[in-house]
């Protein structure tokens, strides 16, 4: 059984104090619907921010695990055949990067965004376009999970990490769907996995 307990600091509306929210992630598909519900006393943007940080941490763990194999085998960032991802910053022309370079650029960009107090404020309200920015981050981070699953499945399977990765994929797919942080086509490469009960 995969069990993970974590906590985050969340702002209380109208106060400059903070509190810890502890969420228990137990490997049970029947509990995913319950786990992705925003607690009643929590700001929805705080909850999304918390899950974004979880996605960063969890996706990085899997990426670092496959990175050695990825360096030698993955010339492009993809999730199986026909699902190639290009890297784009702002209005620049999208460019094809090796999977390792794509992930490194992504984590650098995410770190910069998370440290931006205008996007992730401590005591001020979130910006009106907050969801637009985090949606792009969720979509790109989810590609790391899909790349690990589709391009490094043998390594994941042999290392007995398949169940943990499948849980992460299902959890974040359901979370992104619930809070409209992805498009349907984003989930297409692992649709067969999401359809499993």
From TrEMBL:
It comes from the Eukaryota. Pfam families: Mob1_phocein. InterPro entries: MOB_kinase_act_fam (IPR005301), MOB_kinase_act_sf (IPR036703). This is Mob1-like protein. It comes from Hexamita inflata. The lineage of its organism: Eukaryota, Metamonada, Diplomonadida, Hexamitidae, Hexamitinae.
